[in-house]
Amino acid sequence: NGQVLQEEELEFLADPGTLESSSNKIVVTNNAAYQADDLDAYDSDCDEINSDKIALMANLSHYGSDNLAENLTLPTLQDDLILSVIEHLKTQERVLNELKHEEKASTSYEYSREIESLKHTLSEYLKENESFEQKITIIKDDL
């Protein structure tokens, strides 16, 4: 094949457990040639991958750079949308908490007014009761 393996590659192929001899060198050389054929097969696989990449890029080029740019910015748009939704939810939570606080204050004010009204009614009943007691006392004294 005409491919020459580097010295490190040859050392890798040699069996470190055997002594170096001329027969070992021949085996290593023959193995190296055999391995070079395998490398060619591997390289052709890589060539196929590159061909596939080229075909993919050719197919993508039919869509135009504007469409590709839109696809590249899609994750950014999704991130922006998610952040927008989060901000909206935070605002909504804040508004609901404020309304809840105002409702508590309003309810508290309404309760205060109702308590004052009940106090006034009770005071009127007590005065009326006192008036009845006085009348009863007067009637008892007259009998």
**What's the total number of strands?**
0
Biggest β-sheet strands, sense, barrel: none
- SSE run: HHH
Uncertain segments: none
Radius of gyration: 48 Å
If you average the pLDDT, what whole number results? 71
**By helix and strand content, what is the structural category?**
mainly alpha
Shape: rod-shaped
Count of DSSP H/I helices: 3
Q: Gap between N and C termini, in Å?
A: 144 Å
The share of residues in extended strands comes to: under 5%
Q: How much helicity do the residues have?
A: over 70%
Domain count, please report it.
Answer: 2
Coiled coil: 115-142
Keywords: Coiled coil
Q: Could you give a quick summary of the protein structure above?
A:
This protein is mostly helical and 143 residues long.
Structure keywords:
single chain, 143 residues, mainly alpha, 2 domains, 3 helices, rod-shaped, coiled coil
Would you mind describing this structure in some detail?
This protein has 2 domains: 62 residues; 70 residues. It is 88% helix and 0% strand. The chain has 3 helices and no strands. The mean pLDDT is 71.
Q: What is the element layout, followed by pairings?
A:
Blueprint: H1 7-13, H2 22-61, H3 64-142
